[in-house]
Amino acid sequence: MALAHSSVIVTTTAVDTRTRDQLSVPFIARPQEMTVYVRFVEAGTATHNANKGLLMIGTNISTAVFDINWSGSAYRISHGPSPFVEATLGSAPVFGNHVELRAVLHGDGHVTIGQSITRGTETTATNATVKPLAQQWGASTLRLNDRGPNTTVGWTAYRDVYIAAGVKTMQQMRVLAGTD
Amino acid sequence: MAVIRGLAAFVWTDSDDVTTERVLLLREPVREQRPAHAQSVYPARSLDFQTYQVFTVGEGADELVIRVRYNDDPQGLVDLIKAGTKGRTITYVPDRNDPDRRYNCRLVAPLSPLTVPLDPDTGTLFGDFDVDLHLVKTTPAPFAEVWSKDLLFAWRAGGRLEEATYSRADVASYASNSGGGGYGTLTTAASGAARTHWMSTASSVGPRTFPTLLLEEQRTNRVLSNRNLNTTNWAWNGTGTLTTGQSDPWGGTNATLLNDASTTVTVERRQTIVLTASTRAVISVLLKAHTTVGTGSFRLMTTNAATTHIRGTITWSSGKPTVTATVGTLVAQPERYRAGFYRFGVRSTGTLTTGNRFLGLRPASTAVGSKGGLIVTGVQAEQ
User: Fold this and answer.
1) How close B25 comes to chain A (CA, Å)?
2) pTM of the predicted model as reported, rounded to 2 decimal places
3) Nearest Cα to A158, choosing from B164, B287, B187?
4) Smallest CA–CA separation between B124 and chain A, in Å?
5) ipTM of predicted complex
6) For residues B210 and B212, what is the distance between their CA atoms, to the nearest angstrom?
7) Are B347 and A16 an interchain contact pair (Cβ–Cβ within 8 Å)?
8) Could you tell me which residues are beta bridge partners of residue A99?
9) How far apart (Å, rounded) are the C-alpha atoms in residues B231 and B272?
10) CA B266, CA A56: separation in Å to the nearest integer?
């Protein structure tokens, strides 16, 4: 369902389809207390009412994952596998917003997600449910814009992705990423 | 930030040794780390220095130079260098609390024969040693994320993605910031090329000053001949004039001028498109003001014109449009591109049924006495 326009698709005598982008990179750090910082321009994911991926450590939601995704109404952090420990933000960006998300995996497995839109005050959500950390992620992979190969794909213009050990504030991550 | 002391180590296996594994614990954290690169390079300049040429062999190898300081195990250090000299794999573990993060390397330098130097600060007082180890990975690749104990991953748009697994099965568009004042030249990325898409600040109308990596889901454009509106895929309702070959945001001439010079009828350039899914739809278009501007509009409607699903009305001020969604929802205010073009989209409020629809572009308002022109390209209908 198209709720925002995507990049221009040139046509001539027939309709034309632009296929999806798919990207993953190696991520070799073990499950540990850490903070994920993603800065991006909202390019359409947040206009949808269905699950869409933004960033996932692991390979799919059936295995050990740390997953920032669009819930259908707001961005959410999910620590899997099932039963997931999830926290969902209370507000959402709109198309074209400049967004910073900070997702924290605490040492006992509970999660926190923070959001700053256009450098505004950070809003946060936390799920204090404890979940032991897995010894390894489902795969030593970091995926962008989906929640597994060919599933729940979004639209995002990424600027920065930084992951640090330990619990960091938004300002600390901005300093680390050089975005402050 | 957390500080980790004394948790780095080198490990190696040497068949000349009776132990299963040798370990050199590093007394101090490895802080002095420097990237390096080695490659066979043959540059040459002409005698008048006007021409430069270079011949390189392969991609070379990314290396890491680690300074090991305050070492109080001289024989362990020598044994490491001896093992490296023999070509054994030396594994660097930056943090023993995270043992899966390790780097299998070859020792490039120093090799035997050598004399391990004293540490300049503590050597003569405590007999500590200091040596730069020059390492290359056994599988040549950069040393990702050794640079900070706290940093597990770092990437910035425009940065390296050579270790990434990326795919896109066909071409796709993005905005580069070269040419046209940096407002965005539409460019085509080849299949399998990740798009570094330049964007502007929140106002969306300034020069594009920062790069992004644009990743998108699959979409289909249901409009045919979306740049050249002078084909049989389009038709006039009313009689307007049309001029192709207009400058476009690709840096070419694939835009079309639609002109309504009539004071007796309203003109609209239309195409019948086919909706194939029962979902909402988005119409987007790149527009530029003509010398004679009117209040233009575009719309998506049933083929009997009884129902309008999307209507956007455009007014102009100093070449900049303001778009109002009179039917449907404006996705965002216009985004500027090269050559004075602006792109915007309007989506339907509700779900549409499948079947044919008219997509219409009006250069001037519905008032029959209204005149004006629009330069159009990149018309897009998505579901």
Assistant:
1) 21
2) 0.85
3) B164
4) 37
5) 0.96
6) 7
7) no
8) A40, A117
9) 13
10) 52
